[in-house]
Design a protein that fits this description.
The chain is of the alpha+beta class and about 425 residues long. The chain folds into 2 domains: about 220 residues, no CATH class; about 180 residues, no CATH class. Helices cover about 60% and strands about 20% of the residues. It has 19 helices and 10 strands. The longest helix has about 40 residues. It is elongated, with a radius of gyration of 34 Å.
């Protein structure tokens, strides 16, 4: 009678909870199936690998996307911190009234700074006689002070000599390559020299290195020299004119809206290019690489989800008699399905959030981790000469992180449906026939 009473109580429990999804009875059974037992060691190993696979897949996705976001953000900030968001160039005649035009452009709402500019390629050499190509940019002293990307990153020396008109600023990597320090002489040779009866003689002139700047982008630190505008005009045979006016705007995405206003303010024919056109190939390649990496790394999570399927199918086969007993005691097919769904979903959910935690920890300490592995391996990981930046950036995007979590949970939940459905369709009579 006691056994019958217990059976009736179990049946009543199953029936009373059958209509309520994820009842206490179903959670208890699902938790028991998750716990490792000696005879189910192999199934537990598969569940463990599924957990690790999802955790590592989610963490890898978050880390890689954060690094690529940081890489893009740093490149944009450094590239646009040195180069203008919009470049205005003359078409019909040289820019002789560049001062008035720059002042007029500066009054346009949305434009933060207008820089008249003279540029030219030269060969730079230092004390050791070694030479390297250099891009000389001539700008006004007041504009250089406002250009914080340069004036705010002086590593040695100062800008006093530049302001006085008799000194230049040199990138840190170029200075190291030429063996220069603040106060040394740098020799510049330009093919656009003086015209003589024998032809054009290259122009060679030495300047004092007033200061050494370091932007943090190796391409610029190794190739750029800043020179006072008046001196650059003399050196490049451009007295009284500039080649272009670079405009910095408050929001780089608003360049299309500002274009007609700048054309109206110029009151002449000008050719305007923006930062997207000048760097279109570069940033398009970054976007394609980012999308492809997301798709490839998603396969890691997919493989881990397939491990959940195989683990649950083996668990269903092993628990066939248990399922039959539960069904005979009153558990419905829906209840059995929910039990195994929770078992698989628990692995996916735990793996996903463990992966998020691991990804966040790694992203917050990405540069320290890079330095540690560089020290262990004895090599330079993320070489600035190849990757432009002097340190490894990581910029986590909340929207992307949420999308990764949703994707991982969705794959995990989908992976549990088929095994859970097979468990719910198990015939108790067939399962208990040979027991």
């Amino acid at each position: 009678m006691a056994v019958d009473a217990g059976k009736q109580e179990t049946v009543a429990l199953g029936k009373s909870k059958a209509g309520r999804p994820f009842s206490a009875f179903e959670r208890v059974v699902a938790w028991r199936y998750l716990r490792a037992r000696r005879k189910e060691a192999f199934i537990s190993v598969i569940a463990g690998f599924s957990f690790l696979g999802i955790m590592l897949g989610v963490a890898t996705l978050i880390i890689v996307m954060a690094v690529m976001n940081g890489f893009r953000t740093e490149l944009i900030s450094r590239i646009l911190g040195v180069n203008g968001h919009m470049i205005v160039q003359p078409i019909d005649s040289p820019l002789e009234n560049y001062g008035a035009l720059a002042k007029k452009f500066s009054t346009i709402p949305g434009v933060t700074m207008a820089l008249p500019l003279v540029e030219g390629q030269t060969l730079a050499s230092g004390k050791g006689g070694a030479g390297t190509g250099a891009l000389v940019r001539g700008i006004r002293a007041d504009d250089l002070k406002a250009l914080k990307t340069i004036s705010g990153n002086i590593k040695s020396g100062n800008i006093d000599g530049f302001v006085a008109g008799d000194g230049v600023l040199v990138g840190s990597r170029m200075a190291a390559q030429l063996g220069l320090t603040a106060g040394d002489q740098i020799t510049l040779m330009s093919p656009e020299g003086d015209v003589t009866p024998m032809g054009v003689n290259p122009r060679i002139k030495s300047y004092t290195v007033s200061g050494i700047f370091e932007i943090g982008m190796s391409e610029y630190d190794a190739s750029m020299i800043y020179m006072p505008l008046e001196e650059a005009q003399l050196y490049f045979n451009a007295e009284g004119i500039v080649q272009s006016i670079e405009l910095f705007v408050s929001n780089p995405d608003d360049v299309d809206e500002l274009r007609p206003k700048i054309e109206d303010a110029a009151e002449r024919q000008v050719f305007i290019t923006d930062w997207r056109q000048r760097n279109q190939t570069f940033f398009s390649a970054l976007q394609v690489e980012r999308n492809v990496m997301f798709m490839i790394l998603t396969l890691i999570v997919l493989v881990a989800a397939l491990n959940i399927i195989s683990g649950l199918i083996m668990l269903v086969k092993d628990k066939g008699s248990d399922i039959a007993i539960l069904r005979t005691m009153g558990a419905t097919s829906g209840s059995i399905m929910r039990i195994f769904f929770m078992t698989g979903a628990a692995i996916g959910t735990a793996g996903t959030f463990a992966g998020v935690l691991l990804g966040v920890i790694v992203c917050l300490n990405i540069e320290s981790i890079r330095q540690f592995f560089s020290w262990v391996s004895g090599t330079v990981l993320f070489d600035p000469e190849l990757y432009f930046l002097s340190q490894l950036p990581a910029d986590m995007n909340v929207g992307e992180t949420v999308s990764v979590v949703v994707m991982a949970l969705t794959l995990s939940f989908i992976a549990t449906i088929v095994p859970a459905w097979r468990a719910s369709r198990l015939d108790p009579v067939q399962a208990l026939r040979y027991e």
